[in-house]
Design a protein that fits this description.
The chain is 36% helix and 14% strand. It is α/β, with parallel strands linked by helices. It has one domain (9-280): Protein of unknown function UPF0759 (TIM Barrel, Alpha-Beta Barrel), CATH 3.20.20. The strands form 2 sheets. A 6-stranded parallel sheet has the order 3-2-1-9-8-7, covered by helices on one side. It has a 3-stranded parallel sheet with strand order 4-5-6, covered by helices on one side. Strand 2 (71-74), helix 3 (84-92) and strand 3 (99-102) form a beta-alpha-beta unit. InterPro entries: DUF72 (IPR002763), UPF0759_sf (IPR036520). This is DUF72 domain-containing protein. It holds the Pfam family DUF72.
């Protein structure tokens, strides 16, 4: 994942911003419970990307991946709508507690940019993606970096069209969504009223996307490491923040690790999971990264 890549990550101030006041208001509405839903994973299971993660002789990469992680950020669905039998195969090859977090197809988000043509495509996408049944986690829609607030009407129409029974998270990359407090407030209100998660992106070159403003009881975090020692310090900061949010009522923690060079994603994920187990009693399997 090249988004937000910088040449010298040691020069970036990775200090985690304070929470937006609305985050505490959202969490205060939650019933405090001891249990949380922790889904931690990588963006893909391809052997070529996750070099040295798979033991020699591994025949089915998804089966092995799903024995080590309880979720995947399913980026493959960004590029095509797969035939129905493919979703059934994914379902059958993963354990009962596994969850897929599919990315909305780019024909909706990037090529047609939420115009009037995307609704039929969305229906086709959902028709097959929901074949994952209870193994389908939150679908996330990532909008192009040049898709700005001038497209507000398209966003509003699409959010109103989205079936409310299917969980959705949205990622806004254009800087103007957050540069103006009025626009940011309107966006937040739209997401909150429709129970849509406000994606947090932690990447070196775009610190403005660390808005720290939850719109529902879901922390959907897309973490992009820089292949640099500071990656682990940043994860420590996330552990502290998630611990705080959990104490205030957060129950859904969905955290996906990317790298500019993906080969270290399992190492970072294992580090995060081990800390979550100790600090937040997550009780997750720690991936074997030896």
């Amino acid at each position: 994942m090249k988004f937000g890549k910088v040449e010298h990550p040691e020069l970036i101030d990775f200090t985690m911003p304070l929470d937006h006041p609305d985050t505490e208001r959202i969490l205060s509405r939650s019933n405090l419970v001891n249990d949380s839903n922790f889904y931690i994973g990588c963006a893909k299971w391809n052997r070529q990307d996750l070099k040295n993660f798979y033991p020699r002789g591994t025949k089915d990469e998804l089966v092995y991946y799903a024995s080590q992680f309880n979720s995947i950020e399913l980026n493959a669905t960004f590029y095509r709508i797969f035939p129905p039998d493919q979703y059934q195969k994914w379902y059958d090859r993963t354990p009962a507690n596994f969850r897929f977090f599919p990315k909305m197809i780019n024909r909706v988000s990037h090529l047609r940019r939420l115009n009037d043509k995307v609704y039929e495509i969305t229906d086709r996408y959902l028709e097959v993606t929901t074949l994952l049944r209870e193994k389908m986690g939150t679908i996330f829609l990532q909008l192009h970096g040049n898709f700005g607030p001038k497209n507000w009407d398209r966003v509003e129409r699409y959010v109103n069209y989205w079936p409310k029974e299917i969980p959705l998270a949205m990622e806004f990359r254009h800087k103007d969504w957050y540069a103006d407090n009025s626009i940011a407030g309107d966006l937040y209100y739209l997401l909150k009223e429709n129970n849509i998660a406000h994606v947090l992106v932690d990447t070196a070159g775009r610190r403005d996307l660390m808005h720290m403003r939850l719109s529902n009881n879901e922390a959907f975090v897309r973490y992009v490491g820089a292949n640099h020692p500071t990656d682990y310090d940043r994860l420590d900061d996330w552990i502290t923040r998630l611990q705080q949010w959990k104490s205030k009522g957060l129950t859904n923690i969905h955290f996906f690790v990317h790298q500019n060079l993906e080969l270290e994603s399992p190492l970072l994920s294992a580090y995060l999971i081990e800390k979550l187990n100790r600090k937040l009693d997550a009780q997750l399997v720690i991936p074997n990264t030896l």
